[in-house]
Amino acid sequence: MSSSLPHLVPKRALLALSARWAAVGPVLALLGAAVLAAGPWLGLGLDAQRQIILVAVLALAVGGLNLSFGYAGELALGQVLMYATGAYVVGYLSTIGVTNVLVTLPAAGLAGLLVGVVSGAAGLRLGGWVLALFSLLLLDLIPRIVNLLHGRLGGVAGLSGISRPTLGGLPFDNPTFYTTAIIVAALWFAAMRNLVHSRQGTAFLVLKESSVLAKALGISTYRTKLRAYALGAVPAGLGGALYAYLDGYIAPSVFTFELGLVILAAAILGGARSVYGAVIGAALLQLGPRQLSLFDQYAEVAYGIVLVLGGVFLSTGAAGLGHRVFDRLLGRARGEEGIAPSRQESVDVPPLPGEPLVVDSVTVRFGGFTALEDVSLRAEPGTVTAIIGPNGSGKTTLLNVVSGLLKPRAGEVRVGGSPVSGSTGRAVRHGVARTFQTPLVPASLNVREVVASGRLGSGNVTLVETVLRLPRYRRVRRADLAAARRALAAVGLSRAAGLRADALPLGTRRLMEFARALAADPAVLLLDEVASGLDDTELAELTVLIRAVREAGATVVLVEHNFELVREIADHVIVLAEGHVISTGVPERVARDEDVVRRYLGRRSAEGGDALTGKGTP
Amino acid sequence: MTVLWAGLTMGSVYTLVALTYNMTLVLTGVLNFATAQFFTVGAFTAYAGLTQHSLPLPVVLLIGAVLGGLVAVAEERVAIRPLRGHGGHTELVTTLGVSTVIAGAAIVIWGPDPLRVTVVPERTWTVLGGQVRPNELLLIVIAVVATLGFHVWTHRSRLGLAGLARTEDEDAAALRGIDVRRLSMLGFAIAGIFGGLVGPVMAQTTYAVATIGLVLALKGFVAMALGGVGSHLGALLGGTVVGLVEAFSNRHLGNDYGDIAVIVILALILLLRPTGLLSKGEPRLV
Lengths: 618, 286
What we know:
Number of domains of chain A: 2
Strand content of chain B: under 5%
Oligomer: heterodimer
Number of strands of chain B: 2
Low-confidence stretches of chain A: 1-9, 333-338, 605-618
Largest sheet of chain B: 2 strands, antiparallel
Number of helices of chain B: 11
Strand order of the largest sheet of chain A: 10-11-12-7-13-14
């Protein structure tokens, strides 16, 4: 129909633009930085240069906060400490005659990193608000240490006469210093952009959303948090160094809680979960209110209001606002493209060499409550083992033990003969992958990224390889995306790949979790009530899918309430009641077991239909 | 001995802040960064009431309690309730914002300089060979009594037990008929009223000054983390340790060392015993 064309055309253009944004955005940003860096030769005045340097300095500190807070979810207010460290490092180096920019700036960045690692190691033990307050407390160290080392650092009066950096013995003039500051900021944001748009960035977001999920995917939570926090300290150190060079003078009175507030407010305004938002937020604050002397008196009230309103309403800041407008125009957030899984006759699952899973006399207690008592089972490759039982009988606890989330009080879990109990890392390395009863889905990722995140536990790619996009990074990334594509096709969700994960309905989320587990090429696949919330058609497809995974060779373990499904696909059934195994065998045998019928199946049929035939009375 | 009394006095201040943190943590599940500012509200109420308008003390205490309660309830309504179910640590940002607004407002109204507040007559007594003022002794007594009171109340009263249940599992508590929203509002109200009531006495030691809120927020946090999050007796222990370490380090090592010593102790506790001294369980409150 011609009437729909006018609004279709811009929509299609937008879609094309959106698809290319990932490639075009960084190029535009680099072009912008290049034009900015050439400012002095395009007639930019000294005062304007100074203001832009201050924006760059603030943006560097904000960028670091975005990495640890916006992406990894750890709010640290100690950016000022790293900033001050960078400033005092170049200040001190200048007093002993070291001014070579290729020495001083890396030294400032490394010093920031060091402070980040040391302070993060303590504060991240508990994370959350403990880290936030601990890092804030550390700001108090700045005047203390500066005062104690006043001979070297100038004490309360400040350190003056910091000479401009040099290169090859030549001191920087104003335009050169200005350009250097822009280049340093551009380099950091390029590195940060490559870092967050990578499996590492996905790991940060997964961790922010759910530490349980992160662990189940084989991500070391403590190390990942520390990495984000410590890396975020580097740009703060660089920013501090540039600041020290700008005026040639620093004093403890600059590095205060108020500066921390400005950094946080800029992060919130620009959008903490964004790369370029840091620049926007820094520019808004630096070129706006910080120029007005009248503002001084009301500064704290204003920053406070920004934090309250920003926290409540603007959860994604200016950058997120842009994304939302874009999504709205495309109808993408609401998933208009149709997200129902597509029908398919056969499922294509690559070979999954399974490993035998052995649960050996496992006992789990929570306080005085025994959740599992002396539970053993053996699941073979190429078979489906179903765990059934009433609510609270310990089914999910058993899956948690197998996937390493819970450490058993006694007993052991072995995959392919290797013990894995008590360590999600070991379980993942031995090929254990799982889904959750309540799907754990990071809202901020799209479906393709969620599914690819199933592979985060494997494929070691270093930070340097990630930031520089070296061949190994690209190889692993290609493999991740290929596996995600295959897994999405297998569950029939190929067309949903580009949608936001939280736009999917519950049943579809379960399938997405299935795909995530599948993408990991699991040797042992654990499915926790994957069938609940699915309609008849979806259930039929799920049955085909689970069979295909079994044919591919994997060891499948299924926690399930739907006995009809169990009867149809399980080779072996284990019945749990109150933490004990009360029956095992083929489905038909278990269904005839009087004890099982009395304690589980019979009661279910009394409650709502005949569980044995699965024909419920509505 | 004078150093000991000084340490115990500041220790009591930190204990009181830590107790108030615990109160909102247990009943609401939120670390309220603005907790210490409830005492600031009481302190400036005392300055305005006693010094500026010469009102009788009971009236000032009443006004302080009402104002503290109102500020706290308003904070819960504006900065906490809209975030329910969002997850993450957004309440850290919003309560930090509230704290900043309160400090900023105090600067706008009363200026940045410390203001003297006299709640009980200024005297100096010699007790156990050390010099101590009546208001300092009063503060120590209040801290001990409040600790015991909160402890008994949390473990005996229906409300306190409901709070403990909520801490264990919010959804389960809601299913058992515990009104989580009402609990949250009550947690803030109690903290606010307590701060408004005790703030005037505290201000005679700390003065009424806008910047004190930040210092108290941090040292009170150290006291709570040392003693064990959620434990009232731990708050007393932690507060006392922080106060004494600070006082003795400042006296014997030099003025800059008090704060450094406190930070070092906290870092050690976080690394070696992250649950704090008196907490048995897992650090699951976060």
